Amino acid sequence: MNKLFFGVLVSIIVAYGSVDGKRVGWPYEQIGSKYYYIERSTERTWLGAHHKCRAIGGHLLSINNKNEFDAINRNLDEEYNYWIDINDLTKEGEFLSVATGRKATYFNWHENEPNNKDGFEHCGELNYGYDKHLMNDNNCFEKQFFICEY
Ligand SMILES: [Ca+2]
Ligand SMILES: [Ca+2]
What we know:
Layout: H1 3-16, E1 29-31, E2 34-44, H2 46-55, E3 59-60, H3 66-73, E4 82-87, E5 96-97, E6 121-129, E7 132-139, E8 144-149
Parallel strand pairs: 4-8
Antiparallel strand pairs: 1-2, 2-8, 3-8, 4-5, 4-6, 6-7
The structure holds calcium ion (CA) (2 copies).
């Protein structure tokens, strides 16, 4: 175990503590086989959401397959949109995952999306429309809820 990792581990234990074996203050909940934090009170820009997820030890939601997509989807509130990790800020039309730094592999877009509307849509979200949440590219400066993955 290197020093940095040990330091981080100690920080996590100190920050979140443990009472009766339960992690207190740890914001994540298990959904399917993974741990997620769904922000439902403070709306942030995509970058703000990205930083918040990093600050709580995770990253913006990275969806790898239909199972993960469906599991998350069942836990979202109607009418709200949620930032996820994909963006095409580096190269228009090429969506990268900030979680992996590589091209994203799973997409489930709304019809006619991503459309890069007005040339300003570079950040991925789960967008509520037509009675369901599907992916959309949106303006990164919009403030909305978001999902972090541990
Ligand atoms: Ca774009
Ligand atoms: Ca769009």
